[in-house]
């Protein structure tokens, strides 16, 4: 089955700096790669996703890149703000009959 | 649209007790899942369902049962609670695209914080 590895597990950045979180996946059949943000005590919520026919996608300060050959994808947050502090999860899904597989999460702290 | 609704939000059980965590969605999603979240372990899949009457095991199914008699509801049963089941439980649903079950946005319930003493 699919295995998703996520690094780093914790990340601290100064406000205004960029943050990068990286994930690798093992199943070449995976074709959908979402990123979820979970604030303290809240539910995970989708912030951006990318499909395997696209190499990069941006939404304001957030971008995701995908390298299918190397089986890795990354989340980039620019101009970080204190409200970006949260746990971020990457995941991999596919067009078959199997559910999403999540990475173990990255706790991002943005220091003002 | 309420989305995905979980009840209860908090629960304390004694070892050996049984209980059911409720999950309902009103988005007409075919696919529903249960995850548990423990510190440093991410979201681990317990059971999932690709439609009414169909369920399957995930990564950590032992000690849990599920059923899917309707599209809307996907309850999770703890048969005999153990301290190792202390966790935060999330139910999720997604629409799917084509024949895929995991290739669209997953919507999560607000979570159930369960403590087994």
Write the layout of secondary structure elements.
The complex is a heterodimer of chains A (112) and B (117).
Chain A lengths: L3 E4 L2 E5 L4 E7 L6 E7 L6 E7 L4 E4 L2 E6 L4 E6 L8 E7 L8 E2 L3 E6 L1
Parallel strand pairs in A: 2-11
Antiparallel strand pairs in A: 1-3, 3-8, 4-5, 4-9, 6-7, 7-8, 9-10, 9-11
Chain B lengths: L3 E4 L2 E4 L5 E7 L5 E8 L3 E10 L2 E4 L6 E3 L9 E3 L8 E8 L11 E3 L3 E5 L1
Parallel strand pairs in B: 2-11
Antiparallel strand pairs in B: 1-3, 3-8, 4-5, 4-9, 5-6, 7-8, 9-10, 9-11
What does this structure look like?
The complex is a heterodimer of chains A (112) and B (117). Chain A has 112 residues and is mostly beta strands. In chain A, 0% of the residues lie in helices and 54% in strands. In chain A, the strands form two sheets. In chain A, strands 2, 4, 5, 9, 10 and 11 form a six-stranded mixed sheet that branches. Chain A is globular. By secondary structure, chain B is mainly β. Chain B contains no helices and eleven strands. In chain B, a hairpin with a 2-residue loop joins strand 5 (42-51) and strand 6. The N and C termini of chain B lie far apart (36 Å). Chain A binds chain B through residues 6, 9, 31-32, 34, 36, 42-46, 49, 51, 89, 91, 93-105, and chain B through 31, 33, 35, 40-45, 48, 50, 58, 90, 92, 94, 97-106, 108-111.
